[in-house]
Amino acid sequence: MKAQLQSLVLQALQSLRASGQWSLPDPLPAISIELPKQKEHGDYATTVCMALAKSMRVNPRALAQAVADAFPGKGLFQSIEIAGPGFLNFRLKPAAWHLVVEDILRQGERFGAASPAQADKIMVEYVSANPTGPLHVGHGRGAVVGDVIATLLQWAGHDVTREFYVNDAGAQIQNLGASIHARYRELLGLPFEIPEDGYKGDYLIPLARELQSKHGADKAEATPETIAEFARFGARRLLDRINDDLLALGVRMDSYSSEQAMVEAGGVENALQTLRGSGFIYPHDGAEWFKSKELGDEKDRVVVRSDGRTTYLASDIAYHKNKLDRGYTRLINIWGADHHGYIARVKAAVAALGLDPGRLQVVLTQMVNVVRQVVDENGQVHAEAVKSSKREGNFVVLREVIDEAGRDATRFFFVMRSAASQLDFDVELARKQSNDNPVFYVQYGHARVCSILRKAEEDGIPIPPASPEALAPLVHEDELNLIQLIGSLPEVIQNCAARLEPHHLVFFLDQTVAAFHAWYQKGAADPSLRVLCEDRTAAGARLLLASAIRQALANGLTVLGVSAPERM
RNA sequence: GCGCCCGUAGCUCAGUUGGAUAGAGCGUCGGACUACGAAUCCGAAGGCCCAAGGUUCGAAUCCUUGCGGGCGCGCCA
Fold this sequence. Notes:
It is a single chain. By secondary structure, the protein is an alpha/beta fold. The protein folds into 3 domains: 2-92, 2-Layer Sandwich (Gyrase A, domain 2); 126-260 and 366-431, Rossmann fold, CATH 3.40.50.620; 438-560, Isoleucyl-tRNA Synthetase, Domain 1 (Orthogonal Bundle). It is 49% helix and 14% strand. It contains 21 helices and 15 strands. The protein has helices at residues 2-19, 48-56, 60-69, 94-107, 137-155, 171-187, 205-215, 224-248, 259-264, 267-277, 312-325, 343-352, 398-405, 407-415, 427-431, 438-458, 468-471, 477-486, 489-499, 503-525, 536-560; strands at residues 33-34, 44-46, 77-83, 87-92, 121-125, 159-166, 255-258, 281-284, 287-290, 301-304, 330-336, 360-365, 368-375, 381-386, 423-426. The strands form 4 sheets. The protein has a 5-stranded parallel beta sheet with strand order 7-6-5-11-12, sandwiched between helices. The longest helix has 25 residues, at 224-248. The protein starts with a helix and ends in an 8-residue tail after the last helix. 41% of the residues are buried. The structure holds one RNA strand.
């Protein structure tokens, strides 16, 4: 509806220009359509006349009046008013809203999705954890944010691939091998020492036990070969475990990209050659440096150490080159906020490869605090935070949270706040099956609509085919507001996709359910306002609206990857 | 010291990329069930939008400075 209005305003402005009486700038500015906070200001408003009047040096109200006079498609509008300093306020006729309901029901499960007019080939890369331990809650947030952003982009009409970059090369993996080896020696009753920067968590013990039953004491000596073997074994097992956790979250990747495989295929050397060829790499102090400073980074960075080993950045340059070589026109990376300092150098890498660094967008997810509420003797509620720190082994494991709160609640909580804000994850609240849990509030709304539709069927109340006549009884303010709300789902999805911000969709769902509950509740006081009321014509129209509400809620929940139960 | 994020109701957070009288949930107080599902709804109280300047018809939103909190700043990943 917003988009339609936008094009009508545009047509009006163009016809003003054609009339020759107004010297409108060319090109015209973007026409923003807004939702007035107060209903007296109409269903929609535009501020474009105020913006234009400034540059044209004319009276904004006079311009607004001219736009209103020239407005096409007046039949849809109950009123078009000039207000305040130059707002143009639109109020639609009920019949115009009825078309929205028809449209939603016609589109069904596709309602909210855009036709792929200008599809980009996009890679969303997320999770990308080292296979050196279980996922913790921070990874979980990244996983869900990435997954939902990928879905949003698909719904916005793009061609999207979800990829997990497996950091299975380098020092971390060596540490893993050495740590497992230490545990292995421990099981053998030999003296052992977990490396200083190794992995101290208990989760390595079962892996060591497996190796013990396989090899006995044959591998007691820490040869480089043995460490490498243990590292490969551990990385494989831990990656399996990571995938189990992702599956429990409902996160499914399309593709995995192994750093080790890329190294072995010569990808890193190849990328370095390319940059040497274009003069972005120079030797200094026995190492090789990437000229990232002249491409926007704070300083230059080492890519080949003085001992000849490449750095993590070298791999990452190669990996991003690899993604671009595979034909992706947009790269979206979901990273934990602790990696923010890394953005500039990877963007510099993209630029050094001769491409627009704007092709790479990085979404940073801020820290997750898992909190548990404790009520003291004064009734004061305190949130106890559990800090996560992977190295020390006392982190909050994602799996524990999923097992406790469930998949739906975990996903919902991870996307309900802006990724830029730190998140307090209240496990007690997430598992609560009650009204103060926002997940259940939304799901209950969906189940309740389903219940009405079910009751209608049981009672033999027919739902007519959607048509202007069948929908004509929908004239109540609550009903028209509800239509406006659910009709905005496509805009909400577009907006979320464009901004890479899923949380707006959560607010849409919450707001829609609240409006539905309020509408429903009016029927308790006045039976003539019930969906299943005596007047079967009205009942039919309201059942059509209920179906459309159900569809909007179900589609929104589907994008979030949260189930839409028919009963609870 | 430098960089990024955050600062909005008692608490947790939205705020449609600069619009009209700043919103929601929780919590508090007061109401509505012989039910189209009360896992709900209605109402009340609660604000110097961290501070000070600036930009303009108009600022929670943009700019500058400062304050407070978080996270980073390696030839680690």
